[in-house]
## 1
Amino acid sequence: MSAVSGDMRGEILAEALLQVRGLKKHFGGVAALSNGQFCLMPGSVHALCGGNGAGKSTFLTIVMGIQDRDAGIILRNGREVVFAKPSDAHAAGISIIEQELGPIPAMTVAENIFLGREPLARFGRVDFASMNRRAQELLDSLEFGISARTVMMDLTVAEMQLVEIAKALSHDAEVIIMDEPTSALGGAEASRLFAAIGRLKAAGKGIIYVSHRLSEIFQIADSYTVFRDGEFVGEGAIADVSREALIQMIVGRPLTEEFVKENTPGDEVALSVRHLNALDWVKDISFDAHRGEILVLYGLMGSGRSEVFERLWGLSEDRGGEVRLFGQPTNIRKPAQAIAQGLAFVTEDRKETGLVLTSDVRANLCLAHLDQLRLGPVMLKRREAAASQRMIDAFSIKTPSDRLEVSGLSGGNQQKVVLGRWFMTDPKVLMLDEPTRGVDVGAKREIYRIMSEFAKAGGAVVMISSEADEVLGMADRVVVLRDGRISGVLERAELSAESLLHLAA
Amino acid sequence: MPGTPSQSRNFKLLVAQYGQKYGILVALVLVCVILAFANEYFLTTRNLVNVLRQTSINGILAIGMTFVILTRGIDLSVGSVVALAGVVSASFATTATTAMVPGGPYPAVFALAIGVLVGVVCGLINGVIVAFFRVPSFVATLGMLSAARGLTLLYAGGKPVPALTDSFRYIGTESILGVPMPVVLFALVFFASLWVLTSTRFGRHVYAAGGNPHAARVSGVNVNRVRLLVYVISGGLAGAAGMILAARTGSALTQAGIAYELDAIAAVVIGGTSLSGGVGKVTGTLIGALLIAVVNNGLDLMGVESYYQQVIKGMLIVAAVMLDQARSKQA
C-alpha cells in the first residue's frame, strides 16, 4: 500500500510514545501475527484497523504483557522494553480499556479506580476519605461529572467506560488502548466519550483506538494502521485516506459498495404492531413491517428498542397491545410460539444470548429447528447434518467441520451461524438486533446482502441498529424510539444522520 | 488441499479434542495395566466382576448427576434419597412382624415402583425449587439432603428395615449369565442415558440449556422444563440405587448413602464434565466411576489402609481436573 512512509518503517523515533516493529506470534503452527508494526505519537488518536482475525487482539495482548512474543521489538519513548506481565505494562504507563469491562459492580467508583492499590491509613485500614477525594479530583479534572461515591452498578455503560478511562489515567498512563469502546454505547454517550478522548489528546496522551466502526475512526482518529491476516498492511494520516481506500486496505480487495440493498417494499403488511407495551416503561409502540421491507428501530441505549423485540418474542409478559402477522392476530407467550409463527430473532449479543459456545457448529445451527428434524423424541442425525451443511453453504460459513466448537470461529462467522440458525426455520419476518456489531467490514457486507436478499424474496426485516451509517444505507423506513415511546417515523427519503439524532436524543 | 496451514491447524484441534475425550480412558487403562502386573488377583474374572458391582451404585448416581451438572446444577441430595427410597420401598417388602405397612410383604415390583416414585418426587421438589423459585441448586438440594435424611429416620423410626423378601432382593443379589443384577441395571441406565443425551431432542436441549440458557430460551427451548426434568432423572436414579443397595445388604439402613453424592460428583468431574455446564458425556462419567472403583480395588488388593485410599481419591479428583484445564488451555 502506498500509505507506508519509509522513515517510519526503518528508523527509531525517539519522540514516539510507543513503537512496535516486526512483532511475531505463533500459536502451535499458526501465525497469529507475522509482522506487527505500529507507531504512536504523543497527543494523537491512532486507529488500529483490521478485520476479525487480522491480529489486532494478539498485538494488544503482547503490548499489554499478557502474552509473550516470538520476535520483534517494542519501544517505549525510544527505549526497548519487555513486559512479562500486565503490571509491567501498567508501570510503563500503558493502560487498556477493554471490550468487556471488568468493574466490580457492588463497589463505589473510587474503590474501583483504586482497586488493588487503595491508600492505607493506620493498621492497614483503607483511607476512604483520601481515596474518595483523590478519585473525585481525577474525575472532575476530566469533566466526567461522575461522583466518586456512586456505586458502580448505578452507572450507565458509558459512565462505566469513563470510569475505566479515569482508572487508566490514575495509573499515570500515557498510552491508552481502547478496544471497541463504543460497542455498548448509544450516540449521545459515544459523543461524551469522544469529548473525553479529545481532552486526553490535548493533554499529550496517545490513544490506540480499535473499532470496526469506520465513521468513528474518521471522526476522531488522526492516523491509522491496518493489519490484515497478521501482517502490517499500511499506515498513514486519516486526512490522507478515503473511506473506500481504508476499507480496501482492511479487506484486501476492492469493495464496490459498502451496503447491499436491492429490495423494494411491498404493500402487504407482514408484521403489524399496535399499542404494544413492554415492562412498565415501554408504551404504545405501533408500526407495520411490510413484505420486502427493511424497517429499522432506531434509538439510543435504553430507548426501549430491545425491549420491544423481547416482548414480541414472548420473553417478557403481556402488558397489552396487539400483534398481527399477515393480518392474523397472534398471542405469542413464549419463543417456541414465535418460531412456529414464522418469526426469527437474531439477538443483540451473540455470546450472551445467541450462541451456545460450548457446543459445536451443527448443534448451534439446528437449535431452533429441532422439532422439524426429529421423529418423536429421536433426532434424525442425517437430516441434522444435511440441514447444517445447507446453511454452511448458503452463508459460506468458514469452518473445517461443523463438529468443531463454534467458539473457534471468527466473529463474522459466528454471527453467520446465528443467522443460519434462523434461516433454517424458514422465517417470514426477521428480527435483527444489532446484527453487525463486532464483525468486520467484509462480513458486514455479507450480512447486508443476506438481509437484502431475504427482503427481496418477500420477507420482512425489522432491524435494531445504532450505527447511523448502517441505518442510512439499509433502511426503507425508520421508527425512532426515545424513552420507551415512538418519537417519530422517517421514510427513506427523509433520512439523514441529523434527523435520526434529532428524534432519538 | 492436504498440508495447508489451516489443515494442520484443524488436525491439531482434532488431536486436542480427542485428547480431552480419551485422556481419562488412557489413565484408566494405565492403572489397570499397572495393577495387572502388581497383583495377580486383579485380572481374575471374580475380581473384575466385583469391581463392576462396586461401581454400579455410584455409577447410577453419577449418571443422574451428569444430567444435572450438564445444566450447570448440582444435586447434593442423592445420598439421602438413596436412604429414603431404600427404607420406604423396603417397608413394603419386609417379612418382619414389626412392619409399619400393614398387609405386607407386597410384590417386589410394587415395592420397587414405590422406591423409584419416592426418588422422582424428591427430584421433582428439587427441580421445582431450582427452576421456578430460582433457588441455586446447591442450596435447594442441600435442603433436600437434610430433609430426606430426616424423613428417612422419621419413617423408619430410626431403625433399619430388615428381612426383605427374596423377590425384592433379586435386584441386588442375583445374576444374569454370571453378571450381577446391579451391573446389569447399571448397564441399562448407562445405555439409556447415552441414547437420551446423544440422540434425542431432550438431549440437545440439555446441552443447550447448560451451555447458554439465554440463547437456548431465545431459540425456543423450554429451559425451565429441562431443569426440572434433570432433577427428576437424578432423583429417580437415586431411588433405584437406594433399592439396589438395600437389596444387596438385605435390609434398608437409615444411614445408607451418607456422602454418596460426593463420590457421584467425583466420578462426573473426573469424567471430564464441566461444572459450568454444557460440556460432558456419560461415557466420561462411566470411566470416571470405573477409575475410582479400580483405584479403590487396587489399593485394597495391595493392602493399603483405607485412610490412604481417601487421600488418594482426593488427589485423583483434583489431578483429573488440573489435567483437563492444562489440556483446554493448550487447545
## 2
Amino acid sequence: MEFEPVIGLEIHVELSTESKMFCGCRAEFGGEPNTRCCPVCMAHPGALPVANKKAIEYLARISLALNCNIPGRSIFHRKNYFYPDLPKGYQISQYDQPFAVNGQLGIIFDDEHISVGIERVHMEEDTAKNIHAGKSGRIAGALYSLIDFNRSGTPLVEIVTRPEIHSPQAARIFLNKLKNLLKYLDVSDCNMEEGSLRCDANVSVRPAGSGTLGVKTELKNMNSFKHLEKGLAKEIERQVAVLEFGGQVVQQTVHFDFASGEVTPMRSKEFAHDYRYFPEPDLVPLAASSSFVQKITADMPELPDERAKRYMADFNLPAYNAEVLTSSRELSDYFEATLAYFNDSRIVSNWLMGELLGYLNASGTELAGCLVTPAGLGGLLKMISSGEVSNAVGKEIFMEMCKTGGAAENIVAARGLTQISDAAELAAIAERVIAANPAQAEQFRAGKDKVLGFFVGQIMKETGGRANPQVTSRVLRDKLAG
Amino acid sequence: MLISHDEVRYVAKLARLKLESGELDRYAGQLSGIINHINKISELELKHVELTSHVIELANVFREDQARQSVSRELALANGPEVEAGAFRVPQILEAEEQ
C-alpha cells in the first residue's frame, strides 16, 4: 500500500531583543551561568512581569509577514507544569486567544508552489537551561542537573503550521524559507546551533488519498535542517513499517538520534500533558489596534519577494537570478554591498551565483565566514573589467582570496598575474607556437577556423592564462595568415 | 460529593503532593465545598455576560526594551540549597530506568 506522510511543524524563535520578555535582564546567548537573572526570571515570590514592547512589535512583524489575521484582543495564559528549568511552575504563554491566526507561507517544492497554512503565532517565554551531569549529556543517564537561568524569560515566539506538509524535503524547504524570512524581518539571529531557532514536528502517515489523519507522533528538537529531514524520513519509515505489519502507531513523543539514525520513544515521565491553562492575572490583555497594525506594516523591512521584484525591475536581472540572490538575506545584502564597489549588477550577480556560491558549497563555508568582502570582490571585478587581469585568471585570484583573504591587487602583484595585452609580446609567443605546430597551422590555412582555439589554448598555456584573449586571437589571425 | 477520591489523587499527583488515605476524604470534601460555592454563580442569569479573564479595563501595559543590571550571581544563588559551578544543582530529573 502507498502511504502519504502528513507533517505539521512547531517552530520556536528566540527574539533578538535587548532585554528579556518580562524583566530587564539582558537577553543574550551564553554568558557565565546565572549572571543575567533577577527576581522576575527566577520567580521569587511577589515579583511581577511587565511585557517587553519591542517583543510585541517583533511578534506583530512576524505575524504580518506570515499573512496572519491579528485579532483585536489576545491574552496571556499560564501553562502549568513542574520542571527544574521552569522556576514559577508555569510558563507564561498564550492559549485560546493567541496573538495571530490563519496565515500562510508559500514554498516551491518539485517545481510546484505549495501554500502551507499557519495555524497560529503566539508569544511566550523561554525556560532556563538544564545541564545534565552524566556520561551522555542526555537527561536519561544523568545523575543530577545544573540549572542556568540566563535563558529564563527570553522572548520566544511560537509558530504552528497546519499539517499540510507531505515530505521531509518539503519540511526542510519550509523551515529554510521561514528562517530566511525571519532574518529579513530582523527579529532573531535564527542560530540553530545556539537554539534561537528550534523545530518540533508532528508526523503521521495515512493511505495515499485518504481524507482522515493517522495517529501522530511528535519529534522533538530537530535542530538542524539535516536533522529535521533525516529524522522525519526515519520516523515515517518506522510508522509505515508498523502499519504494514498490521500494527498500530502509538501517540507519543519520540527522540531522533542523529548519530545512530535511531528513533526511540521519550520517557513518558518527561512530559505530563495536563497543563491546566488559565488566564495570567499579572498581565493585562494585548489589544492590537488597527493603527498599531498599520504602523508595524509601514515599518516592515523589505521582504525577499519584494526584493526579488526590485532586482528584476531595477537591475534587469532574470527571475532566477533574483530568486537565488534573495534566497538569504546575507547573500542579498552582500550583492547590494558589492554593487557599491562595482556597479554592474549582471556581472556581480554572475560572480556571486557562479564563483562565490560555488566556493561556499564546495568548501562548506557560510557566507558570514567567507574571507572575501564585498569591497574585495568589487576590487577584483574592477581589475577584470579594466583588462588588468583576464577573466580566467580573475577566477584563480578569487579562489586565492577565498583561502587567504588577501586583496586582488596584492595577489596579482605577488604572483605576476597581470594580463598581457601587449600585441608585440603576444606576437612573439604566437610565432613560437605556430612554428612548433606546423600541421595545425596548415589546417587553419586550409580553412579549418576552429583550429584557432587550439592556438589560443597553447598561448594561454605558455602565459599561465595571462594572455588577453581578444588581442591573442587578433595576433594569431595575423600571424597565421602571413 | 462533586469531587471524587480519584480526582483528588490526580490533582495531588499533578501538584506533586503525597496524601495519606484519610486526607483523600478531607480534601474531597473541601474541594467539593469550593466548587459548590462557585456553582452559586450559575444560579444567576448570565446569558448576556461575556466571559471575563481580567477584571480591570486595561490593555497594552508595556516596558521599553532596555536592559538593566541583573542581580549579582552570588545573590542569585544565595537561596539555592545546592550550588555547583555557578549553577543551581538539582536532583536527578528522571529516575533511573526501571529494570
